[in-house]
Amino acid sequence: MVDAVKKVCVIGAGVMGAGIAAQIANAGIPVLLLDIVPREGDDRDAVAKGAVAKMLKTDPAPFMSKRAAKLVETGNIDDHLDRVAECDWIVEAIVERLDIKQALYAKLEALKRPGTAVSSNTSTIPLGNLIEGRSDQFKADFLITHFFNPPRYMRLVEIVRGEHTDVAVAEKVEDFVDRFMGKRIVRAKDTPGFIANRIGTYWLAIAINAAMDQGLTVEEADQIGGRPMGVPKTGIFGLIDLVGVDLMPLLSKSLSSTLPAGDPYFDTVRELPLVDKMIAEGFTGRKGKGGFYRFDKATRTKLSLDLATGEYRPEAKPAELPGKTGKDLAALLAEPGKIGTYAWSILGNTLSYAAMLVGEAADDVVAIDDAMKLGYNWKYGPFELIDRMGPGVLAARLAEEGRDVPAILTTAGDRPFYRVENGQRQYLTARGEYADVPRADGVELLEDIKLRSQPILTNLSASLWDVGDGVVALEFHTKMNALDDQVVALINEAIPVVRERFKALVVYNEASNFSAGANLGAAMFAVGAGLWDMVEASVAGGQQAYKALKYAPFPVVSAPAGLSLGGGCEILLHSDAVQAHAETYAGLVECGVGLVPGWGGNGEMLDRWTKSGMVPKGPMPVLTKVFQAVSTAQVAKSAAEAKEMMILRKDDGITMNRDRLLADAKAKALSLVEGYVAPEKPTFRLAGESGRTGLNMAVADFHKKGMATDYDLVVADRLAEVLTGGEADLVDIVTEDQLLDLERAAFMASVKDPRTQARVVHMLQTGKPLRN
């Protein structure tokens, strides 16, 4: 059994060190954050304290909850370095200078316990250089853990073990990074830049140089080198703006000083006066005055940098890519003119460079693909991209140009790097044999299950899968996992199947977002046609399906990740339990588009706050809590925040690593099977007309301050009518079904209102709320 990490020390409170400390605290583990003593001032811990204070104000937040910050204890390396003896893991995240790191290690060697892991967050310095002159014990306890910025949100950690590293020590750190910090580990070799930054920096340099050489605009370059290649929607120049224009020369300098002579990277290194000028004038990207793109506040227009003149001009979006070139990689590369030329400049160089690094920077193609997908948010890894164009095609074109063909391409021939054999995804090894794509112990993924089985039930919007051990998974698979009548139909079909053949149901999918809520586009189609009976039937059908889940004779566990909004959030509220990924963003957001929650969310939130014991007795404190959250469309920015908002219960589970969510949700569901009894139906005593008046008075005050629009008052009143029980008063008992009737009536009144319809259409067209 791997020894547990119960306390961590992070040395270095810069952006990376502080972010690593925050993520450790997010996992519920105490962490000691140390930095230097400042030259001025009386507070010797000011640097580390300041880092924590800054993180509490940062957006996106490094902490998943402000409570997590209390687990970070601050200090300085002059007065508190001896406290590393209390810790099971020491993370060094100081300046990238070998001499300073080695001096720190010499001190740590004398203070830490044997077996306490020490790791460096270096991105460039080889492990062998770092441990030079250290004892055998220190070398056994040392490894590299290379996190990506921001540490909370980036899932990749590259880990380098040295030839002296103790396997048990490395496994202790890897287990903690995986299960507690939520990262997927990629094993890298002890080479400069490891995997992701070495390929990523090369890719960006190639793309910049080729765009300038070939006379492309930044918009054209981002169009060609962006989505067609599976690159984030920012595109290449947009990505540089995001990470920082000033970071590029720093990475280039670092790699140039450590890469072996003859590495193709050196062919990309050149003077870039335009970039130097941008940095000197403060145009360092989004964190500065702008970068290759910037927003002019005076004219409220987006500007782009002209690569030829160095001057900004209004953004000029290029024409759509012709034919299939936007979706077909082979078509993109075959396109004549600047489109195909630029695409080949990027892909030919980047993919051959990645292929060259198999065996040198990583043992296999899977590690390289994972590093680029997790570290640079590529949709496809380099070898998945090669498969999309054909390994033989890439090799032949390189040979035609008189360029070296990497050994792994020769080994592949015309065979793909990935295949599915007997329901198992496999990859091509450097020896030319296929091997199963590995999964960490305990990881269960629906994508693997789907390769070897067929759904029990399926339609265009949802499917039901047997995930083993008597558990089934209900998967949504619409765009943004929007919920529609077919999802509702499959829920109704699934319940008798599960009752007769299985033990429990997990609501789970592996898309980026659990569910963005009801399909508003379909609803607006019916609204536009005046099909009001159809709209009301859809609302009523959703209410009944959610009730059927809630009162099913078996446990229902929801396992959300990403957005869980509106109807998606209401699924969580109707489940017996939730096992949420830590990065779950949940809330009832309907009021933002002029609606009210329509599938039972109001009653569930009232019931939870009533039973919580966290508010004073009486109807108004509970009403106020629910009204504030729903009327302002509050969204929890993490699963921890969702607990504070009562969207999740106190005993609902949180999984840090997305890869482990299904296994954890299954375990949660199975733990509820023995002796399972469906919940009792709640009843409510609500505040009636007087409570409704009180809630409306609060909104009216916001209106007077200009913080709420005229129509916000109307929407808030409809919500208040539901939450206060309509015509009921304190002596009346309001049933769950009565509350659903009020909810449905308020929803229909809202959806018939042209002002709500304007809000919905605006949201669908722009992705932004309309304040009318």
From TrEMBL:
Coiled coil: none
Pathway: Lipid metabolism; fatty acid beta-oxidation
GO terms for biological process, alphabetical: fatty acid beta-oxidation
Stretches assigned to the 3-hydroxyacyl-CoA dehydrogenase C-terminal domain: 193-294, 346-396
Catalytic activity: a (3S)-3-hydroxyacyl-CoA + NAD(+) = a 3-oxoacyl-CoA + NADH + H(+)
GO MF terms, alphabetically ordered: (3S)-3-hydroxyacyl-CoA dehydrogenase (NAD+) activity; NAD+ binding
Gene3D superfamilies in the cross-refs: 1.10.1040.50, 2-enoyl-CoA Hydratase, Chain A, domain 1, NAD(P)-binding Rossmann-like Domain
Pfam families: 3HCDH, 3HCDH_N, ECH_1
Residues covered by the 3-hydroxyacyl-CoA dehydrogenase NAD binding domain: 7-191
Classification via InterPro entries: 3-OHacyl-CoA_DH_NAD-bd, 3HC_DH_C, 6-PGluconate_DH-like_C_sf, ClpP/crotonase-like_dom_sf, Enoyl-CoA_hydra/iso, NAD(P)-bd_dom_sf
Record's keyword annotation contains Chloroplast: no
Keywords: Fatty acid metabolism, Lipid degradation, Lipid metabolism, NAD, Oxidoreductase
Spans through the membrane: none
Keyword Mitochondrion in record: no
Protein name per Swiss-Prot or TrEMBL: 3-hydroxyacyl-CoA dehydrogenase
Annotated source species: Sphingomonas taxi
Lineage: Bacteria, Pseudomonadati, Pseudomonadota, Alphaproteobacteria, Sphingomonadales
